[in-house]
């Protein structure tokens, strides 16, 4: 690959991406544009601007953007229409943020005339795949630079030495071994590494940032109502909220009640297993609510087919194929199923659990007349079930008769 002339870097303002910024300048002699996304990670982003300026980036080449609404509306909500869960447990909080970051990297590259983008993902993880598959899907000619796969800064000591040599500010708490690494956005927090690397050892309590210990959560349950339209949550307790504001509110409610903690050993796309501590308070409540409203508004055949498609959909998101035709095909089918997924769900939040306790909808398929144990006034003729059973039993009876004949 020829040396890039101008690179758009996904920049957090932290030590690693600051080192990457300087490394790009010294290694390639190129101009660097920084992009810092506010995805609801809960950190002040102004220091990232000051850090970039300190490292010689021109003000017009510093992009700091609040993309929380786009993140929830166009990425989180479509994924939750699918009830996507990876390996039965993980709500894909890190995975779903990467295609949006890549989208903006590619767009900013086009806006600024840059010929390359760069990210700070390591060569061991999933994020390198997610960033790069998304970038290539959006611009097949873009160059992607992954410094962790190129440089010789293979230890924390070497990184700190490089920082000191190039006068990159180092926070005091970075001089020692960091206890663990954290990735956060409005959907979740993800903690990995160091004190969490041995899956046989309990995660220390200080790892958790968004949720109280369920044992310390309020002793009284809290009941909330979530309104849905076309598969997306639109209100909490009757108050209409934008996608990002709704998820923010659910995070507050779920976190207060200790909901959404997960200690998971997962199979990475690159082949190894890793242990992560995830907190998805609002997402856990949202998934339960969405399942709750689908129970009365979604036909059995559509619901069961969705559940068959879901693991494939979740795997595509996890592996970085958000912009693939197969994910888009699945999304079209899933979105079609959501036209009548509207109504209200009441949930009980209590000491680590979110449980549906009631649901109602003008689009409901539930017919009390058909299921009642009282007089159904002719809504259902129970005698019809006899023929239904006989037809379904026919092949089983033929199989049993054959087996009995052969044994005899």
Automatic annotation (TrEMBL):
Binding site for L-citrulline: 90, 95, 126, 130, 181, 190, 266, 278
One BP annotation, GO: argininosuccinate metabolic process
UniProt subcellular location: Cytoplasm
Coiled coil, from the record: none
EC number: 6.3.4.5
GO cellular component, one term: cytoplasm
Superkingdom as given in the UniProt entry: Bacteria
GO-annotated molecular function: argininosuccinate synthase activity; ATP binding
InterPro entries the record matches: Arginosuc_syn_C, Arginosuc_syn_N, Arginosuc_synth, Arginosuc_synth_CS, Arginosuc_synth_type_1_subfam, AS_cat/multimer_dom_body, Rossmann-like_a/b/a_fold
HAMAP family: Arg_succ_synth_type1 (MF_00005)
Assembly, per entry: Homotetramer.
Family from the record: Belongs to the argininosuccinate synthase family. Type 1 subfamily.
Protein name (Swiss-Prot/TrEMBL): Argininosuccinate synthase
Species assigned in the record: Roseovarius pacificus
């Amino acid at each position: 690959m020829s040396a890039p002339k101008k690179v758009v870097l996904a920049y957090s303002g932290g030590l690693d991406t600051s080192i990457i910024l300087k490394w790009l300048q010294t290694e390639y002699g190129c101009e660097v544009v920084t992009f810092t996304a506010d995805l609801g990670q809960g950190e002040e982003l102004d220091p990232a601007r000051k850090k970039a300026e300190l490292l010689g980036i021109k003000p017009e080449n510093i992009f700091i953007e609040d993309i929380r609404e786009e993140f929830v509306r166009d990425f989180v909500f479509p994924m939750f229409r699918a009830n996507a869960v990876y390996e039965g447990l993980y709500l894909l909080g890190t995975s779903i943020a990467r295609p949006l970051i890549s989208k903006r990297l590619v767009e900013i590259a086009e806006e600024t005339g840059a010929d390359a983008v760069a990210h700070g993902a390591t060569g061991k993880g999933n994020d390198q795949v997610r960033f790069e598959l998304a970038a290539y899907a959006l611009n097949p000619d873009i160059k992607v630079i992954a410094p962790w796969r190129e440089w010789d800064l293979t230890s924390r000591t070497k990184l700190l030495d490089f920082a000191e040599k190039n006068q990159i500010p180092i926070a005091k708490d970075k001089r020692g071994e960091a206890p663990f690494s954290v990735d956060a956005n409005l959907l979740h927090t993800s903690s990995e590494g160091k004190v969490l690397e041995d899956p046989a050892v309990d995660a220390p309590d200080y790892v958790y940032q968004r949720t109280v210990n369920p044992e310390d959560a309020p002793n009284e349950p809290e009941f909330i109502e979530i309104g849905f339209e076309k598969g997306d949550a639109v209100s909490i307790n009757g108050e209409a909220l934008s996608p990002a504001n709704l998820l923010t509110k659910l995070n507050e409610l779920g976190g207060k009640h200790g909901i959404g903690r997960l200690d998971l050993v997962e199979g990475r796309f690159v082949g190894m297993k890793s242990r992560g501590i995830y907190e998805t308070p609002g997402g856990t409540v949202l998934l339960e609510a969405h399942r709750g409203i689908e129970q009365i508004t979604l036909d059995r055949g559509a619901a069961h087919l969705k559940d068959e498609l879901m693991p494939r959909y979740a795997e595509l998101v996890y592996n970085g194929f958000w912009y693939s035709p197969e994910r888009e095909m699945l999304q079209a089918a899933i979105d079609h199923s959501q036209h009548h997924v509207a109504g209200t769900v009441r949930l009980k939040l209590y000491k680590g659990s979110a449980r549906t306790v009631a649901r109602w909808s003008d689009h409901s398929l539930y017919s009390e007349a058909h299921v009642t144990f009282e007089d159904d006034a002719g809504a259902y003729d129970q005698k019809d079930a006899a023929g239904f059973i006989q037809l379904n039993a026919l092949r089983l009876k033929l199989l049993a008769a054959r087996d009995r004949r052969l044994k005899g």
